[in-house]
Specification:
Helices cover about 40% and strands about 15% of the residues. By secondary structure, the chain is an alpha/beta fold. It comes from Lentilactobacillus senioris DSM 24302 = JCM 17472.
């Protein structure tokens, strides 16, 4: 039997029976039956067997499935040793969904798609060998982390490692344009090239002059950002890896840009087809001043980027609007127009209700806590990457006259439940950092020189986490409770501490730091101030018990780390970021990211085969009360959980807010005596609360409507899958 000719299989029917209660109980045993049937009916008969590891590797390299270079860095004896260890760990998928997703999307198949060439053990082995780059001890360490699912590389890394015919190892990109036709053209070309490579592309348009601004040497006026957005959407639609996937991009614009209303309007369902954006995502860059003007119910001024750049001699995105607002208003050389701040706030909420967009980047929050010299001006397609950039300029020949820096994202996730069971939390994190370091060291996106330069100078990575809700439920903790917030804070404090330790050790070994380290708050030691005066360890008995046996650094430990960092530096400019992750969390048999679940039994529509059901990890009568749906949780509790993590995360997190069209009674006190329907006021309050709590970014607004559908779909496959 071949994969393309499967008939009379039973596992889909068995899986679907999970959704049919028996005597009021969820028949979870049907999922295990479906898993066993899938392995017996699909995987076992369709996996090509080899007599030895040598025979298998010879076949895969000869037939151009695997690269040979990474394998030649090890002896066959060592590779066999690594396989012996992996096989001895007796890995098993825990759910049908996990096994199905792995074999459907990650396992290497023959070119004719008729047979499997890899098991999970094989993919773990190749990842370990590839990312260890010849270091035998690191290869064993990574094999240990991956087979026990404490570490999950991002999809591009996990999927492509070791393959001869592959895409890039990185997840996504951030680029920007400055205010002239040459850089617009270069940006469109960059979008085409990056979309071809794979991954989502974030593009900052804030520097572009608004509609009606003058054009030098031409009698007329600029058309503004919307036509550029249309060009970019068409570029992503065209550059789609030969139709294998939809190209994905997001454009960012400051709320103080004069085209902000047109920018938002282009995503509305009733927008004119000439300007309507169907697939391009939208994000807004929001300085603190906007929130101040909202509170004062004041007018707000939108400023001409063209004039601001001439007055300040710097692109509009790099001007601190909050600091300069009054000066900008008073400057007669800067054209401006006036709107009501609350009117814009309402427009933002209306669009979020309708489409889930725009993402929100609280740019001053991001910059105030940023320890790196320079300015953050935008984010990526999933809103968790926040890194400093510098602008580029391009001449009439499309050559860089000033090469700035842009961003590529090198991501991976810890599995919270499994890492909490690690025999050595710090050693585990160090192995993960070294695997991510391989990715950044070997990424060379030369088709976009600004991205190449940014990566070479920053060596940035983004280690995150998945499985918070399943860990909390397993340990009888309600999502959003004080204990859940406390646990989250301690966990991410530990990630921060150990990634700093690892980055410092790598800098010491290589005698190399990221560019401009000496201008950072790490170099002068001020970054560590809060850790020297306050212990961020657990305080409640419940959370203390969860961290029993785990080293908790105290101020004295942070003092030693501070001294080491000041002496030897850090290799990575950025270290932590929490992506949304989706299908990859199924393979880990855990819940996605830091979000609460949507359903105890999740229903997924899979192309060609129909519905698949996935019970929440560790679901039982015992844990069921702790699995509240995100749509029934006060979003302020979700914000509080994310804020506890954000305290220690140097970049951002993909925070999604989940709303119902009809709000459950008693969920939000401000609804009492008012309509129970979700309104723009609800979203206004929650966005302002997130800003107050120090949240750097808000990803989608997902709305569960009264007709049982969802508004606000996830498109960032590189971070999500």
């Amino acid at each position: 039997m071949a994969l393309t000719k499967l008939e009379d299989v039973t596992y889909f029917d068995l899986n679907n029976q999970i959704n049919i209660p028996i005597d009021g109980q969820i028949p979870l045993n049907k999922d295990q039956e479906a898993l066993e049937a899938f392995l017996a009916e699909n995987v076992e008969p369709n996996t090509i067997k080899f007599d030895s590891i040598k025979q298998r590797l010879d076949y895969l390299t000869k037939n151009q499935y695997y690269e040979t270079d990474f394998l030649t860095k090890y002896s066959l004896t060592f590779i066999e040793k690594l396989y012996d260890y992996l096989n001895s760990q007796d890995f098993h998928f825990k759910s049908f969904m996990a096994a199905y997703k792995f074999y459907a999307q990650y396992a290497l198949q023959t070119d004719d798609k008729e047979h499997y060439l890899e098991s999970f053990v094989d993919r773990a082995a190749v990842n370990a060998l590839y990312f260890a780059d010849g270091d035998q001890q690191l290869a064993m360490d990574l094999a240990d982390e991956i087979i026990h699912q404490r570490y999950q590389p991002a999809t591009p890394s996990f999927l492509n490692a070791g393959r001869q015919r592959r895409g890039e190892l990185v997840s996504c990109f951030l680029i920007q344009t400055t205010d002239d036709m040459n850089t617009i053209g270069r940006t469109i070309n960059s979008a085409l090239q990056l979309s071809r490579i794979g991954g989502g592309v974030g593009i900052n348009l804030t520097n572009l002059r608004g509609a009606g601004d003058p054009i030098k040497h031409i009698t007329g006026a600029a058309s503004g950002v919307v036509p550029v957005m249309k060009l970019l959407e068409d570029s992503f639609s065209y550059s789609n890896q030969l139709g294998q996937r939809q190209g994905a991009g997001v454009v960012y614009l400051s709320v103080f840009h004069p085209d902000i209303i047109a920018f938002l309007g282009a995503k509305k369902e009733n927008a004119d087809e000439k300007i309507r954006l169907k697939t391009l995502s939208l994000g807004i860059v929001v300085p603190d001043k906007f929130y101040d003007l909202i509170k004062e119910d004041a007018d707000m001024y939108l400023f001409s980027p063209y004039d601001v750049e001439r007055e300040y001699n710097t692109p509009f995105a790099y001007v601190d609007i909050t600091k300069e607002y009054d000066n900008l208003v008073a400057n007669e050389n800067i054209h401006k127009k006036k709107i009501k701040a609350r009117d814009l706030e309402t427009e933002i909420s209306k669009l979020q209700q309708e489409s889930g967009y725009p993402y929100v980047i609280n740019i001053d929050t991001a910059n105030h806590s940023n320890p790196i010299h320079g300015r953050i001006v935008m984010s990526n397609l999933c809103s968790e990457i926040l890194q400093v950039q510098t602008p580029s300029t391009v001449n009439d020949r499309q050559e860089y006259t000033q090469l700035g820096t842009d961003v590529s994202c090198n991501l991976g996730s810890t599995n919270i439940n499994n890492l909490m069971s690690s025999p050595n939390f710090g050693h585990s994190v160090e192995a993960m950092v070294r695997a991510l370091t391989f990715v950044t060291d070997h990424s060379n996106i030369d088709v976009v020189p600004s991205v190449q330069k940014g990566n070479q100078e920053a060596h940035s990575i983004g280690l995150g986490a998945m499985g918070l809700h399943s860990f909390l439920a397993k340990n009888h903790i309600y999502y959003g409770s004080p204990e859940s917030i406390e646990f989250t804070g301690v966990y991410f404090m530990l990630l921060n501490y150990w990634t700093l330790m690892a980055s410092n050790q790598i800098a010491k070994e290589r005698n190399q730091t990221f560019v401009n380290f000496e201008k950072s708050k790490y170099a002068d030691g001020s970054y560590f101030d809060k850790y020297l005066t306050h212990s961020y360890g657990p305080t409640s008995d419940k959370v203390k018990s969860l961290f029993d046996g785990v080293f908790i650094p105290q101020p004295a430990d942070w003092e030693k780390l501070k001294e080491a960092v000041m002496n030897y530096g850090l290799y990575h400019q950025n270290r932590l970021a929490v992506a949304p992750n989706g299908s990859i969390s199924y393979i880990n048999d855990t819940t996605a990211s830091l979000h609460p679940i949507i359903n105890r039994i999740e229903e997924r529509q899979e192309s060609k085969i129909g519905k698949i059901y996935y019970p929440a990890p560790y679901l039982s009568n015992d844990t069921m009360p702790y699995y509240q749906s995100a749509y029934d949780i006060d979003m302020r509790q979700v914000i509080d959980v994310y804020a506890a993590a954000q305290e220690h995360v140097d970049q951002g997190m993909s925070l999604t807010l989940f709303m119902r069209s009809t709000i459950p009674e008693g969920l939000y006190e401000w609804k009492d005596g008012r309509t129970d329907k979700m309104t723009t006021r609800d979203l206004n309050i929650l966005r302002n609360y997130a800003h107050y709590k120090g949240i750097k970014s808000i990803y989608y607004i997902r709305t569960f409507t009264d007709d049982q559908s969802e508004v606000g779909a996830n498109q960032c496959e590189s971070c999500v899958i």
